[in-house]
Structure formats: structure tokens, C-alpha cells
Specification:
The chain is α+β, with helices and mostly antiparallel strands and about 70 residues long. Strand 2 and strand 3 form a beta hairpin. The two termini are about 20 Å apart.
Length: about 70
């Protein structure tokens, strides 16, 4: 599945738009979906306080889209 060409800050995030993402997304996009700014999202991720599960792979933070959908109640 291809990732839609959109930026985290300009997309109106609906459950359908989240479902179009790959299995994981980056912290900035996940933050935008949850209404959290990019800087704050990374701060929360680094502290372990992000509102959904984050996978840490090396230096990357990945957020499972199914966790986002669960938080959104979709």
C-alpha cells in the first residue's frame, strides 16, 4: 500500500485517512492525527509519555496505525 501524498500539518485526519497509511507512521504524523504539535509529539515520545504505543527501532520512532485507530475509537 502506498502512503498518500499529504503532509501531517495540512491533512484533515479522518479514520479513513488513517486507514490509508501504512502499518506504521512517524511521530509527527501521529501527533498531527492526535492534535499534538511536532515538537511536543517528539518530546512525549522521548519521555515515554506519548498517548499511544511507540515502537523504537534504532533511533527511529514508529507509531502503529492500529493503535491510533483504537485511540480514535475507529
Amino acid at each position: 500500500m502506498t502512503t498518500p501524498t499529504r503532509t501531517a500539518t495540512t491533512t484533515a485526519w479522518t479514520a479513513e485517512a488513517v486507514r490509508e497509511l501504512d502499518l506504521t507512521t512517524d511521530v509527527a504524523t501521529a501527533g498531527a492525527i492526535l492534535g499534538i504539535g511536532r515538537s511536543k509529539a517528539y518530546q512525549l515520545a522521548k519521555r515515554g509519555d506519548f498517548p499511544v504505543t511507540i515502537l523504537r527501532i534504532g533511533r527511529r520512532y514508529l507509531v502503529p496505525t492500529n493503535a491510533l485507530l483504537a485511540v480514535l475509537g475507529a
